[in-house]
Design brief:
Layout: H1 4-28, H2 33-41, H3 43-64, H4 74-80, H5 86-95, H6 103-116, H7 124-131, H8 135-156, H9 160-168, H10 171-191
């Protein structure tokens, strides 16, 4: 059976990849004329990358905010600390949007109806339109996941939070991730 620390480490890894995924997506689909030309010259590649990044993001975000009792998720990590740190648990739970029409529900819809299952009644384009997913929503989810994981890492003690701040989520690391995505784009810009 996994310990709280094992589950926290798993969720740290998922949050890191979610934030990096968002960073790469933003760079690859940045509004620049030369990048737009590269994407138009290689539509199959960029369509595949876009779908892969979006589905990966939706699946990770849905996993992070899963409410199922036996799931390893941020929500269940918060439940684990309710007795020992009720004020922190309450504060973190208040940060998570809930209910019909919430960003968490929209991410779940995308994961379930586009990335995991295809419903006969709707095309992925219809699901996207109905859920009204926007890039700023992805940023909101990435920022929320990062905020919660920082708090949980700090609560657990040790050097987890400092490692996140100084390594995986440092400005220099995120700039490197974006720069690497930029290299991919520039390679396509130079080839056409």
């Amino acid at each position: 059976m996994k310990t709280h620390e094992n589950e926290l480490d798993e969720m740290i890894d998922v949050v890191i990849k979610l934030v990096w995924n968002y960073t790469i997506f933003c760079k690859l689909f940045e509004k620049r004329d030369d990048y737009a030309e590269a994407r138009q010259s290689h539509p199959e590649f960029f369509l595949t990358i876009s779908d892969s990044l979006l589905c990966s993001f939706f699946v990770a975000a849905d996993l992070l905010f899963c409410e199922k009792e036996k799931a390893t998720s941020l929500r269940n990590l918060i439940k684990d600390i309710e007795e020992s740190k009720p004020e922190l648990a309450r504060k973190l739970n208040e940060q998570i949007p809930a209910g019909k029409g919430s960003i968490i529900e929209k991410i779940g819809i995308m994961r379930n109806q586009v990335c995991a299952h295809r419903w006969e009644a709707k095309t992925p384009q219809e699901v996207f339109a109905e859920a009204a997913v926007r890039l700023n929503m992805m940023k909101e989810i990435a920022d929320l996941a990062r905020l919660i994981i920082y708090e949980l890492a700090e609560e657990a003690g040790g050097s987890r939070k400092e490692n996140l701040e100084n390594q995986q989520f440092s400005n220099s690391r995120l700039q490197c991730v974006a720069a690497d995505a930029g290299l991919v784009l520039r390679a396509f810009v130079e080839t056409h």
